[in-house]
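Hi F.,

I've been meaning to write this up properly since the lab meeting, where we talked about keeping a consistent format for the predictions we share between groups. The idea is simple: the sequence comes first, exactly as it goes in, then the C-alpha cells exactly as they come out, then a line or two of notes. No screenshots and no reformatting. I'm using this chain as the first example so we have something concrete to point to.
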Amino acid sequence: MFRKEKRMPVTLSMIRVAVQQCGLSGKALCVHSSLRSFGHIEGGARTLLEGLLAEGCTVMAPSFSLRTFSAPPPDSAYPARNGWSEEELSLPPTSQIYRPDTTAIDLDMGALPAVMVRERRRVRGWHPLNSFVAIGPLAEQLIAPQKPLAVYAPFKELCGLDGAILLMGVRLTSMTFLHYAEQQAGRTLFRRWANDEHGKPQMVEIGSCSTGFEAFAPLLAPFRTTCTVGESLWQVFPARATLEVASEAIRRNPSITACADPTCVRCRDAIPGGPMLDAQKSGESTG
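Output, unedited:
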C-alpha cells in the first residue's frame, strides 16, 4: 500500500510571502477563495484574511444575501427579459430588512466572506442582495458608493485604485467582476426586489449567469499572473485591464458569456441586453 504524502499546512507567513511574490502588497483586492483548495491552512479563513491584511492589502469580497432578503416586486410587476427563475416568480412577501451591520450571508459565499462579515472593523455595502464587504485602509472608499441601483460601484473604485482580482483555488466562473464588464459593455443588469429601511419593496440590481465565464480565459491570459500556495492555485488579474478586455469582447461577441445550458433563462435574457424596463421605474444606475 502507498501512503498519501502528508503536506505541510499553509501558514500566515506563507500567505504573506505569496502576496509579496504576486506584487500585491498594499493593493486593493477583490478576493474569491476556496479554503479547501489550500489542502490545510492553519487557523482557516482568519489566517488567510490576516495574512492579506498584514501585507497592507485592502480585502474586498462578495457577501451576497439573496436567500434572506429577496422579495417579490410590488403588484406582481415582473419585468420582461429579466432572467426570472421559477423560484423567483413564486417568492412570498418578507418582512426582513437588510442593514449593513447584519451578519446574514448566503452559505455558498464561502468561509472568507463569512469571517469578514463578523468582523467589527469591516465595511459592508448598502445592497440587500449583492453587498460587498471590505476590510483594510481603503475599505470605506471601495464600499461607500454601493447602492441598490449601483451594485458594482465598488468595482469602479477598484479600477480607480489600480486594484486587482485575486482568485484563490477557484475559476473564472467565480469572478463577479465580469458582471461589471457586462454592464460596461452596454447590458442592463437584472432587477430584483428587497425591502428598504422602511419595509417597502425597492428595486435593486444584480448580475447574471457566470457559468460561461471560462470563455474569457484566453483573452485574459496575457496579463494573468499565478502562484501556488499549498495546493491552491492563485490567479491575479489587474482590474482595469480585465475590464477593458472583457467589456470589448462582450461588445464584439455578446454570446461569449453564454453557459452550456440551453435552458438557462439568465443567459437567454442577458445576451440580448437584459431586462426591458419602464424608464420612470428603473431608477438611475451609477455602477
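Notes:
The radius of gyration is 19 Å.
Residues 183 and 189 are 6 Å apart (CA to CA).

If this format works for you, I'll send the rest the same way.

G.
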